[in-house]
Amino acid sequence: MAGTISKIIPFRDEEEFLEDMSAAMERFSYLASRYGHNPIEGILLWDYVGVQDEEGVKVFRIGEFPYFMGTLKLDLETLGILKRYFGEMENRLGELTVEEIKYFVDMLNEALGRQMVHYEAYDLGLDRNTAYIILNLASLHYLDSILEGKDREVFEEAVELLMKYL
Question: Could you state, in order of their start, the residue ranges of all structural domains in the chain?
Answer without folding.
Answer: 4-163
